[in-house]
Specification:
This protein is an alpha/beta fold. Helices cover about 25% and strands about 25% of the residues. A seven-stranded mixed sheet has the order 5-2-1-6-7-9-10. Strands 12, 13, 14, 15, 16 and 17 form a six-stranded antiparallel sheet that branches. Helix 1 packs parallel to helix 6 (about 170-195) and helix 5 (about 130-135) runs antiparallel to helix 7 (about 225-235). The longest helix is centred in the middle third of the chain and has 25 residues, at about 170-195.
Length: about 325
């Protein structure tokens, strides 16, 4: 090897992320040989009915590599000084869970890069994965962007597309996009390192915004079309789950399909309930394939029908 050639130094990176989505991104950066000087994640919090303290998935992954983990409640005061002292080349942010101030965004030598689970500017905000399914898109993906003070409004660096399968749930798509994010961040860091990165402003006129999913977003309004309700079932899986009511009991629907059925029954009415459970909607009919009555296990509909008494004309959604 020519003695005049020096091995390029690894990028010095601060990583900010919290949930499972961010884990493949962190892992890919580390395995690509970059120097992760610090991982910043949300504080440990009680989880579940027992209130047992749970570590953020990113913290668990960072500890495997022996990376220092820092968990401030807010990126203020001492946290700002700690970041400033590191003198990082790049901050990589993946579902961290806090808004970064301009002071923080301006710190890294090269850029502050966000890994976002949509093809920006479509589906900015908190729930891009669920909304890709709810809106019936055939393809989504991951975007890396140079962060600014807006909400997912920064210049695009790179994208990767991921197809949405017919029976895709938010959970299965989450897994695909998190792995795609790991692949994309390595490509993005390489382009930033060698100077080949191109920063493309977003077309704000094409932007759509998504909000945080709430438990009540899973409620099934049968006045909507069967097609929209089927997408709701997949988009709310695994959380919060699509649901209606049988009497006063919550009734979750985990799998469903649109079916042709000639009926003038009111939306929410049971059309058929012998081995198959078919419900009238505002447009078309919905066949329920996998369900869960409050206090019971999740099961296939045929098994469920053997244990309950329902009749055509009964209505779902009554509380």
């Amino acid at each position: 090897m020519n003695s005049d050639l020096k091995e390029k130094e690894a990028l010095k990176i601060v990583f900010m992320g919290t949930p499972d989505f961010a884990v493949p991104v962190l892992r890919s950066i580390k395995e690509a040989g970059h120097d992760i000087l610090l991982v910043i994640t949300q504080p440990d919090r009680p989880k579940g009915r027992g209130g047992k303290v749970s570590l953020p998935p990113v913290k668990t992954e960072a500890l495997k590599y022996g990376i220092e983990v820092y968990q401030p409640e807010k990126l203020k005061g001492d946290a700002i000084e700690k970041l400033r002292d590191i003198e990082a080349d790049i901050f990589v942010v993946a579902a961290y869970g806090q808004i970064l101030s301009k002071e923080v965004l301006d710190m890294p030598r090269i850029a502050c890069v966000n890994v976002h689970a949509s093809l920006l500017p479509r589906f900015r905000g908190a729930s891009p994965i669920q909304h890709a399914i709810l809106e019936g898109d055939n393809v989504t993906g991951v975007t890396t962007m140079r962060m600014d003070v807006g909400l997912d409004t920064g210049d695009i660096i790179s994208k990767i597309e991921v197809p949405i399968e017919k029976n895709e749930t938010a959970g299965s798509l989450f897994d695909k996009l998190s792995e795609a994010g790991g692949e994309l961040i390595v490509k993005t860091l390489k382009s930033l390192e060698d100077g080949s990165a191109v920063f493309t402003p977003q077309e704000d006129s094409r932007a759509t915004l998504t909000k945080t999913i709430k438990k009540t977003d899973g409620f099934m309004d049968f006045k909507k079309s069967a097609q929209k309700l089927e997408r709701l079932v997949r988009g709310m899986d695994p959380w919060p789950g699509a649901y209606t009511y049988i009497g006063k009991k919550m009734f979750k629907i985990w799998k469903a399909e649109v079916t042709k059925y000639d009926t003038d029954a009111a939306p929410g009415s049971i059309i058929k309930c012998d081995r198959e459970l078919i419900i009238a909607t505002g447009d078309g009919a919905l066949k329920l394939l996998e369900v869960q009555l409050e206090g019971k296990k999740r099961m296939e509909t045929e098994a469920f029908l053997r244990g309950v008494h329902l009749e055509p004309g009964n209505s779902l959604g009554n509380v």
